[in-house]
């Protein structure tokens, strides 16, 4: 399952794209182009290769930067494998520890299989970890008439009225973690809101929660269940975006996803999609 990663440091409102002493620029987007465990004379080190899209000399100047003496602890064979090059091109290496202390935001763009196929055609680089796809999707709606617009969990008496979708996960594949868990991406997209905007209907604040399904469950979960069980994953903040997405890891099993608007009785159509490195089936509970 491929992803794009972008890191940044929160901008100073009083100084546009200010460069810090460590060479990094505030309010600037950096892409992560590689992650490697590098053997050195003093042990393995986790390094990330990061690129400043300006492509100039404004680079990280700390440990493992261009011409850092730490590179003397890596033999030439390993440096050749990493394609280490000390150029004023905006690309540099940084340790994992320095990365997490220096950057403040990390954006993740999960790639669907059709995008990954397009990247293969563009680059000629063929993935060797198998093909995965958005393997299931369902249409749904929040409707007052159908009594399916329950709002978020804050409105717990009406929350169970929302559409509920059961995910059946089996056979986790290609997991680099080796723990047998499934990596799952769930996305909920509001439909037709652009067409409705001229009528004063903007995107609604939406989100969803994921729950472990009771054994043998085949019907919608009720209020008592939600009062006594916490979600395993959820959208952290309800926001009026066209699509909201959450990536999570769980053992194979049965799970229930509950998409909702923030407030009850708000109406919209939506598309829910699920993507996993395991076998997945999704159906709406009645």
UniProtKB/TrEMBL annotation:
Q: Where does the record place the Calpain catalytic domain?
A: 17-112
Question: Could you state one GO biological process linked to this protein?
Answer: proteolysis
Write the record's keywords in alphabetical order, separated by commas: Hydrolase, Protease, Thiol protease
Q: Which PROSITE patterns match?
A: CALPAIN_CAT (PS50203)
Q: Which domain of life is it from?
A: Eukaryota
Question: Which residues act catalytically here?
Answer: 28, 52
Name the record gives this protein: Calpain catalytic domain-containing protein
Species in which this protein is naturally found: Mesorhabditis belari
């Amino acid at each position: 399952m491929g992803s794009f990663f972008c890191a940044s440091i929160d901008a100073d409102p009083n100084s546009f794209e200010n460069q810090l002493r460590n060479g990094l620029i505030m309010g600037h987007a950096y892409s992560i182009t590689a992650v490697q465990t590098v053997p050195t004379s003093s042990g393995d080190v986790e390094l990330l290769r990061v690129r400043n899209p300006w492509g100039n000399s404004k680079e990280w100047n700390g440990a493992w930067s261009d011409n850092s003496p730490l590179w003397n602890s890596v033999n030439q064979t390993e440096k050749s494998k990493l394609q280490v090059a000390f150029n004023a091109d905006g690309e540099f290496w940084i340790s994992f520890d320095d990365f997490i202390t220096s950057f403040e935001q990390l954006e993740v763009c999960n790639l669907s299989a059709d995008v990954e196929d397009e990247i293969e055609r563009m680059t000629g680089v063929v993935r060797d970890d198998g093909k995965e796809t958005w393997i299931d999707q369902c249409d749904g709606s929040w409707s007052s008439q159908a009594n399916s617009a329950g709002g978020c969990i804050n409105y717990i008496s009406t929350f169970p009225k929302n559409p509920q979708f059961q995910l059946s996960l089996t056979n986790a594949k290609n997991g680099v973690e080796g723990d047998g868990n499934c990596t799952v991406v769930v996305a909920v997209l509001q439909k037709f809101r652009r067409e409705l905007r001229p009528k004063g209907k903007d995107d609604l604040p939406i989100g969803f929660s994921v729950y472990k399904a009771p054994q043998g469950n085949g019907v919608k979960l009720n209020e008592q269940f939600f009062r006594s069980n916490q979600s395993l994953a959820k959208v952290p903040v309800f926001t009026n975006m066209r699509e909201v997405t959450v990536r999570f890891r769980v053992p194979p099993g049965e799970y229930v996803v509950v998409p909702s608007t923030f407030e009850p009785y708000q109406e919209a159509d939506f598309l829910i999609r699920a993507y996993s490195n395991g076998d997945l089936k999704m159906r709406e509970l009645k």
